[in-house]
Automatic annotation (TrEMBL):
Protein name in the entry: VOC family protein
PROSITE patterns: VOC
Organism: Streptosporangium fragile
Coiled-coil segments on the chain, per record: none
Domain VOC: 8-125
PANTHER family: CONSERVED PROTEIN (PTHR35908:SF1), HYPOTHETICAL FUSION PROTEIN (PTHR35908)
Amino acid sequence: MAGTPRMTLTATVLDAPDAHALAAFYRRLLGWATEREEPGWVTLRAPGGGPGLSFQTEPAYARPVWPAAPGDQQMMTHLDIEVDDLDAAGAHAVTTGATPAGYQPQDDVRVYLDPAGHPFCLWVR
């Protein structure tokens, strides 16, 4: 067998009932620019480069429950976002449209839900 083919992670994709609305939320939250936008699809990219964050409209999208119980729609992925000030970043997240999750498992991490219900974590090192 030949060597491993080159593979580059280009983006994480989040499904949503409205890709453009969810991308607008993350654009406000992260301050990232739109790299690509078309019907049902948006890709954001960090100013310094690296993998992007994409959003895809999914008509059958089911909002995840966090923390999930048996029979609930499970989250399939979540974003970890390192911040330097947990309180200031949390206030910013709420201002941009996030909702604090009802369950907070750690003191140095805050869990929020984006407008489509995807959990994401703000954390300090």
